[in-house]
Amino acid sequence: MHLIMDSSAILQAIFPVSSSYLSVPSAPGLKLTSTPDLKSFFSVDGVKLPAWVDGMCMAEYIPTLEEDLKLQVVDASASIGCRRRFIEALAPAFGRPLEADPIFCRKATVLSISGIFTFLVHFVIPLQFPKQQPILTLQSCQHCNSQGIPITSSPKNSYPWSPRWEVTEMAERIYDYLADECQNFKKLCSDGFPQAK
């Protein structure tokens, strides 16, 4: 698959200006920014920039930065495959996802049932997956607030997790966690809000 998008990273350098002459100029302030398209695939916010060595010029720094970024983009690409396998691993436990991000594999939604309580589980899968675990939000299919908006839980990410687990175990552990957590969410929906008709 070939994606056409504006995926640029921009290095901003602010060189300090001194009133006195220095034989070795001070290191510039460096900041990496990116286009929204690149940010959806690869977050430059967490990129650790290579150190600026005294006496270095921009022509020496850029190739080092480019090489470093290439390695990090390769890792981000591998992360897409891992996120895709995780979404696929949800099916045996939860059933086939109702929705899933097919390109970057950052989101998925599954339908869950506990007795007669029906709810959605929204998965937001971070760019750093599996080092960082997905954020889960539960949404009732039967309860709405006074504005008619379905009741949702607060985001959940304090459940058992290890990046060393296989994706099937990750999905099974989340399923086990939600078996208990959905009871708390059901009680919140039933106690705090009138049932939708």
Précis, in short:
By secondary structure, the chain is an alpha+beta fold.
Structural description of this entry:
The chain has two domains: 9-78, no CATH class; 89-192, no CATH class. Helix content is 35%, strand content 22%. The protein has three helices and seven strands; from the N terminus they run ββααβββββα. The strands form two sheets. Strands 3-4-5-6-7 form a five-stranded antiparallel β-sheet, covered by helices on one side. It has a two-stranded antiparallel ribbon with strand order 1-2. Helix 2 (58-94) packs across helix 3 (167-192). The model is unreliable at 1-5 (pLDDT under 50).
Radius of gyration: 23 Å
Classify the beta-strand content into a percent band. Answer: 15-25%
What is the H/E string? EEHHEEEEEH
Q: Determine the structural class based on helices, strands and strand pairing.
A: alpha+beta
Number of helices: 3
Percent range of helical residues = 25-40%
Largest sheet: 5 strands, antiparallel
Number of domains: 2
What ranges have pLDDT less than 50 throughout 5 or more consecutive residues? 1-5
Number of strands: 7
Instruction: Give the terminus-to-terminus CA distance.
Output: 45 Å
Largest sheet strand order: 3-4-5-6-7
What spatial form do the alpha-carbon principal axes imply?
elongated
Q: Could you report the average pLDDT, rounded to the nearest whole number? A: 85
Subcellular location: Cytoplasm; Nucleus
GO cellular component, one term: BRISC complex
Protein name: BRISC and BRCA1-A complex member 2
Family: Belongs to the BABAM2 family.
